[in-house]
Design a protein that fits this description.
There is one protein chain. This protein has helices at residues 2-28, 34-45, 48-58, 62-87, 89-108, 119-142, 155-182, 185-192, 259-264, 297-303, 326-330, 363-366, 385-388, and strands spanning 245-249, 255-257, 268-275, 286-295, 311-316, 321-325, 336-341, 344-345, 355-357, 371-377, 400-405, 411-412, 415-424, 430-437, 442-444, 446-447, 457-465, 468-478, 500-506. The protein has 507 residues and is an alpha+beta fold. The protein folds into 3 domains: 2-183, no CATH class; 210-388, Sulfite Oxidase, Chain A, domain 2; 400-506, Sandwich (Immunoglobulin-like). The strands form 4 sheets. It has a 5-stranded mixed beta sheet with strand order 2-1-10-5-6. Strands 3, 4, 7, 8 and 9 form a 5-stranded antiparallel beta sheet that branches. Helix 1 (2-28) runs antiparallel to helix 6, helix 4 runs antiparallel to helix 5 and helix 6 (119-142) packs antiparallel against helix 7.
């Protein structure tokens, strides 16, 4: 019974403390929620193999898995906290202070943190301590044997006290969630944005961009299906009215723009394929969208880049830094400050109000979301977030291909089977795709139209399938004549390599 009451004390104390912290964070900044802050710190400190395992295992649900792990550890800590508090109240309070110190340290470790940001942690710890004292008192008085002395609380009253604490914990969390939704300035701000028609619209897509096979990825990826890989455990909520973009560093004329300032320069529209360096061979972290934005190179040239500079460091509103080779922005490619995606303002998850987009580079060096500043510097002077963690300084996209259909372990009838998928080599373009069945010869696939080297291409191969288990492989050749290597390499440090393969059964 004592162990059970220790569990109740700990869980209720933690529940009230976290509920209050969540409620206060809804008013201060959702990112100051201690659970989110601890989760973000865990992301920053996790070794590369752990990050790779999380992305490979959980995919785009990696953030949910991380937060689930944080809550599981908190639950275990809460049980130990409750047991300690029943033994000596000061032990429980000391443990609560230790938990609060970890939360405060995590909050203050954020690059954009201010002293006010610890208010949710302090509020939660204070109310949690009061809750602990009340519930511990209730639990301890129930344990006093009835020797003619009046009990302060009987079991029923203890349960009422515990239930009251549970309701308090749930209510504060629910109110915090409601307040957070209603105070989601980014959602309201995005709804108010009107993107002007592009002065230079993207040309209509040729009718032949589709291979005409079911199961192949759509040529333009809908926003709801576009992959998301980033370090933000809570999506930043940016008010476009107060948002500013600064350009400084080694430039002669630093500048600051409002959102309207950027739109007034005139927007253009481009179709661009974007992919993540974390993509395994055959992985899903790639998509194509019609982006609307402002050309980035003219902004840099107008600022007057000083001699010897080779890096543009972009920073997001939550403090993440991304380093992009200046040469890749200034060499004539369609590097954009994107403000819209597939005909609508950028979704919050994809960087509203402005993100950078540099074709031909993996996202971690060329696609900063929630952009708020840019600084011209050198690679020797500054290592951005991912470079500090061992990823390559420069990361041009590698030639790759993927089988979309048939799916792995599919069962098909013998006869004609359409093998199809996508291939990409941004900035170079795809000129050939080949398919091999088992250990047979490589066979040429039919390529769909490719209107730009910055876009992926669909392909299809008609196979006269025979009964049995078969392994299908694919490889691509880019416009330089280089054929995709069969050497398998993990995504770290500059992108995966190898042929994608799948096994099917023909009946």
């Amino acid at each position: 019974m004592t162990a059970a009451r220790g569990l109740v004390v700990g869980v209720l104390t933690a529940g009230v403390a976290l509920g209050v912290a969540h409620l206060v964070a809804a008013f201060v900044d959702p990112a100051t929620d201690p659970v989110l802050a601890v989760g973000s710190l865990a992301v920053d400190l996790a070794p590369q193999p752990v990050k790779a395992f999380a992305i490979r295992t959980f995919g785009t649900n990696d953030k949910l898995a991380l937060l689930g792990g944080v809550y599981a550890l908190l639950a275990l800590g809460a049980v130990l906290l409750g047991a300690a508090a029943l033994r000596r109240r000061r032990y429980g309070l000391a443990g609560l202070v230790a938990f609060a110190a970890v939360g405060a340290a995590a909050v203050l470790s954020r690059p954009t943190a201010t002293p006010v940001d610890v208010l949710p942690v302090l509020s939660g710890a204070g109310i949690g301590a009061a809750t602990m004292l009340v519930v511990v008192r209730a639990a301890q008085t129930v344990l006093v044997p009835d020797r003619g002395r009046p009990r302060l609380l009987n079991r029923r009253q203890f349960l009422v006290t515990a239930a009251g604490a549970a309701v308090t914990a749930g209510a504060t969390a629910a109110v915090g969630q409601t307040v957070g939704r209603r105070s989601a300035v980014g959602t309201r701000s995005r709804a108010s944005v009107r993107i002007p028609p592009p002065g230079r619209p993207a040309p209509p897509l040729p009718g032949g961009v589709s291979a005409g096979v079911d199961g192949v990825s759509a040529f333009l990826t809908p926003n709801r299906d576009f992959y998301r890989v980033d370090t933000a455990l809570t999506v930043p909520q940016v008010d476009v009215r107060t948002w500013r973009l600064t350009l400084d560093g080694a430039v002669d004329r630093p500048r600051t723009w409002t959102f309207d300032d950027l739109l007034a320069r005139g927007v253009v529209e481009r179709d661009i394929t974007l992919n993540c360096v974390s993509n395994e061979v055959g992985g899903p972290y790639i998509g194509t969208a019609r982006w609307t934005g402002i050309f980035l190179a003219p902004l840099l040239r107008e600022a007057g880049i000083r001699a010897g500079q080779n890096q543009l460091v972009s920073r997001s509103v939550e403090g993440l830094t991304i380093g992009t080779p200046l040469e890749a922005i200034l060499d004539g490619r369609d590097a954009l400050l994107a403000v819209a995606m597939n005909g609508e303002p950028l979704p919050l998850e994809h960087g509203f109000p402005v993100r950078m987009l540099v074709p031909g580079l993996y996202g971690y060096v060329g696609a900063c979301k929630w952009l708020t500043s840019m600084r011209v510097t050198t690679f020797d002077a500054f290592d951005p977030y991912w470079v500090q963690r061992g990823w390559a300084v420069d990361a041009p996209v590698k030639t790759a291909s993927r089988i979309d259909t048939p799916k792995p372990f599919a069962r098909r009838r013998g006869g004609p089977v359409m093998i199809a998928g996508v291939a990409w080599a941004q900035r170079r373009g795809i000129t050939a795709v080949e398919v091999r069945i088992d250990d047979g010869p490589w066979r040429q696939a039919r390529l769909a139209d490719g209107p730009s080297p910055d876009l992926w291409r669909q392909w299809v191969y008609r196979w006269d399938a025979t009964p049995g288990s078969h392994t299908l492989r694919v490889r691509a050749t880019d416009a330089t004549g280089a054929t995709q290597t069969d050497e398998r390499a993990a995504p770290f440090p500059d992108g995966a390599t190898g042929w994608h393969s799948t096994t099917v059964t023909i009946t």
